[in-house]
Design brief:
Blueprint: E1 4-14, E2 21-32, E3 37-41, H1 48-55, E4 63-68, E5 71-72, H2 81-91, E6 94-97, H3 111-116, H4 127-140, H5 157-169, E7 175-179, H6 187-203, E8 207-211, H7 215-221, E9 224-229, E10 232-238
Parallel strand pairs: 3-8, 3-9, 6-7, 7-8
Antiparallel strand pairs: 1-2, 1-4, 4-5, 9-10
The structure holds adenosine-5'-diphosphate (2 copies).
Length: 242
């Protein structure tokens, strides 16, 4: 069974130029199996980020469905508090890192508090053990534990992206959506972040939806990939398993 299933998703935005509508996504479908690393590549403006944001529930689709771990969210459903809590817990298993690392952190919050937000809905963490977990994760992504008290704007881009990865993986996600995770970083920093993501892949069974412009990077990292054009997911680009 697919871990993530996107079926026929469409999305229009108001078009400021024509006063009409602009179709950012039209009937886009994509599946990710558990532990799989699926790439998505396409020209700027073709709808990749829109699709990522819809999958991560940062935005709503006009049409179509997104199912994760067998659960679909229906906005109009009246749910009990307990059911909502369980649903949130499932969806916490999907995390995202953005092109701009600062997008993962509120500027008013310390890195440590930001990372700790990922522990909400996880059992067995009091203040002290949560703090310890944050230190462990900072070290795992190659940052000193003392960075917990810093704000993201005090960090370099590469450091902040490391912290964003720590924020995403504290919830032990089953799926990590990476939207151009290294394109705002310089080349050496980019390579280090990719090493970190590769390590994560090796050590856990995290599945990836990996969005990038960088074809060599994608063929190195992904086991399957799709091209996207004008709001539609087109050809399957890589289909061999590594
Ligand atoms: P990509 O990630 O492939 O570069 P995006 O998903 O960011 O593409 O954007 C797809 C199209 O939708 C672009 O033409 C963009 O201008 C438009 N778009 C994205 N977000 C919005 C928004 N919030 N309001 C209006 N138009 C948007
Ligand atoms: P708000 O307090 O505005 O409702 P959120 O709790 O949604 O903000 O998110 C707080 C910050 O975390 C935001 O800056 C947002 O971009 C970032 N964020 C939200 N969801 C994720 C995610 N799945 N992975 C990483 N960062 C996220």
């Amino acid at each position: 069974e697919a871990l993530l299933s996107v079926q026929g998703v469409s999305k229009t935005y108001p078009d400021p130029h024509s006063k009409g509508e602009f179709q950012a996504l039209s009937n886009a479908s994509i599946d990710v199996m558990p532990g799989e690393c699926v790439g998505l590549i396409g020209p700027s403006g073709c709808g990749k980020s829109t699709l990522a944001r819809i999958i991560a529930r940062l935005e709503k689709a006009d049409q179509g469905s997104v199912t994760f771990c067998g659960q679909t969210v229906a906005a109009d459903k009246k749910l009990s508090l307990e059911a909502k809590r369980n649903l949130r817990k499932t969806w916490l298993g999907m995390q995202m890192i953005f092109q701009n690392p600062e997008a993962s952190f509120s500027p008013s919050m310390s890195i440590g508090d930001g990372i700790r937000e990922g522990l909400v809905y996880q059992e067995g963490y009091d203040r002290k053990s949560a703090k310890k977990r944050v230190s462990e994760l900072l070290e795992a992504v190659g940052l000193p534990a003392s960075y917990a008290s810093k704000r993201c704007f005090e960090l370099s881009g590469g450091e902040c992206q490391r912290a964003a990865i720590a924020r995403a993986i504290i919830a032990s996600p089953r799926l990590l959506i990476c939207d151009e995770p290294t394109s705002a970083l310089d080349v050496t920093v980019q390579a280090r972040i990719m090493e970190l993501l590769k390590e994560l892949r090796k050590e856990t069974n995290t599945a990836f939806l990996f969005i990038t412009h960088n074809m060599p990077l994608m063929s190195e990292f992904c086991t399957r990939a799709y091209t996207m054009r004008a709001g539609t997911i087109e050809a399957e680009l890589i289909s061999d398993s590594k």
